[in-house]
Here is the input.
Amino acid sequence: MRILLTNDDGIMAQGIRTLARCLSKEHNVLVVAPEVERSATGHAITIRTPLWAKEVKLGEEDIGYAINGTPADCVKLGLLAMAEGKIDLVISGINRGPNLGTDVLYSGTVSGALEGAVTGIPSVAISAENFNEPYFETAAHFMIEFLRRFDVTEIPELTALNVNVPSVPLHEIKGWKVTRQSKRRYKSDFERRKDPHGNDYYWMIGEYIEDDPGEDSDYAAVSDRYVSITPIHVLMQNNDYMEKLRKKIEEVKQ
Amino acid sequence: MRILLTNDDGIMAQGIRTLARCLSKEHNVLVVAPEVERSATGHAITIRTPLWAKEVKLGEEDIGYAINGTPADCVKLGLLAMAEGKIDLVISGINRGPNLGTDVLYSGTVSGALEGAVTGIPSVAISAENFNEPYFETAAHFMIEFLRRFDVTEIPELTALNVNVPSVPLHEIKGWKVTRQSKRRYKSDFERRKDPHGNDYYWMIGEYIEDDPGEDSDYAAVSDRYVSITPIHVLMQNNDYMEKLRKKIEEVKQ
Here is the structure.
């Protein structure tokens, strides 16, 4: 396959380098990634300033492109300007750290895959669970095996797969599980400080709330050493609430 | 009600100023908004650098806070550091220009409301359809009427309302409609130029594809001069695909 590979940790990050190296053995890989880290950028795009694409030598023969933009920018620009010919699959990652539960909303990694899905190309985001000891080789191995066995053209329109891989040696992975996106969320807090000029400033801190367990929850599967695969949709409509809201608006509207 | 008001066009934008002025007649309004325009920031948050909050005098008596961050940052910081006591509702807007179809994914305005929903507070994003002639007064009037008639505590958890108001004089609005999020999307293109140093650079351009009409589509309702109200969910799981994917992964997994 011809694969467009991006990430949000930046083109020099170990996660994307490991995945590019491994995937290149079986596929034609084009790396188009942010020149610097763009974590937690959500689905930001760059519309008010232009984008530069710098050729970067990644390996002996491999050329990639470093972009002064976000993962979504990289996918847009990669597909339209860098890729000459058809791209069969967009992969975003391997992210250093998980993208579970509401992380999906904030994640630059996932937004790279969602941008691929908007454009109508099969797309996968892949993240390694542990920020400090990511075990990228395990995640890269999963991706290669997955592409051997799973036909990515079966992914429905406007949908991407969000994959999280436990950060353990390969032989400790118990298997693959399709999971639901849990309500795992970040409980923010801010640490207030004074700058040298006497102004208050704030550092975002906080911790995760994990109160949505169950066998099919994304974070529970990963803790249990399963690769978690969650299908996510570009459109965010709350279908369950449509009818109730419609009735209520009928009652109150002008 | 005590309302936290943010936007992505920045605290000095006419849309948020108009809405703050109108809402203040019936509600207690706290404005916490980006100090500069942060359009198309998606659900970005600021985690690597600190945030400053500058007090800004908005009207005769009103004080707001300008933040060097994104709409999601403003909601987080506003709720935790600026609002002393309970906030009943988060409103993000009035955005200059629509947030219809896949715009939701890229929109800083909508992400302000989604951040409120993640935190468990009723939240609404509001956008004026036309960038050049927004008719903010029409949108502000809708919001006030809506809050008089609709009980925002009925909005389910992890859900926000995405409202788009036609940019016409108030008397030309035909009514309110609950709509589905359409597949309206941006077909990107890039214009390639050479900088004075001989390097290629790219401007993102493009146009909207509107191929998903029907009475209940968000953009169709707005074109037809109805206020469009779409419930959107923080979690993006594709429920329709879960079972099929689960079966397929069972077949192919290790």
Notes: The mean pLDDT of chain B is 94. Chain B touches chain A through 80 residues (CB under 8 Å). The longest helix of chain B spans residues 136-149.
